[in-house]
Design goal:
The complex is a heterodimer of chains A (64) and B (127). Chain A is mainly α and 64 residues long. Chain A is 91% helix and 0% strand. Chain A has one domain. Chain B is mainly alpha-helical. The chains are: A mainly alpha (64), B mainly alpha (127).
Chain lengths: 64, 127
Amino acid sequence: MDINIIFKIAGIGILISVLNMVLKQAGKEEQAQMLTLVGVVVVLMMVIQLIQRLFMDVRSVFGL
Amino acid sequence: MEIMPFLGIALVATVLLTILRMERPELAVLFGTAVGILLFIMVLQRLGVVLQQFQGLTARAGVEPFYLGTVFKVIAVAYLTGFGAQICRDAGEGALAMKVELAGKVAILILAVPVMTAILQLLLKVI
């Protein structure tokens, strides 16, 4: 489960860059921009959950 | 503690990161953050065992647990601020990283003040 999130983020990144290229070739610059934004937001949500877990773990280990 | 999983994750992540950095630099920062947090959590689980051992040792030596708690807190703040500053620096925001480090230093100073006052009070008592 732990490693999967890395591959998930990398997969999203590569997928978005490919889709971005396709959309740019098709002349849909605005959609490409929106897709980039959506990708960043989705990955940011995942990373925020990870950060929350990190803070919880640090708090429990160091007794903060 | 097995070192191989760390190496494997770090190497795979490095390869993926080089690909992402060319295509999507903004996602590369998030990806690097995620990998760093994952490795950090894995280290933390091992570190917990060591810290518990230390707690047992200090309890046996009769040292007040307050001091060890302060030391642990300082270590935690140092780790976390170093981690956050490194992420900022990776993203090319050196100025933000400096501020994060400054905040960490102040937080550690605040944590250290009670210990310092305890030492000074002890000195006054001795004199």
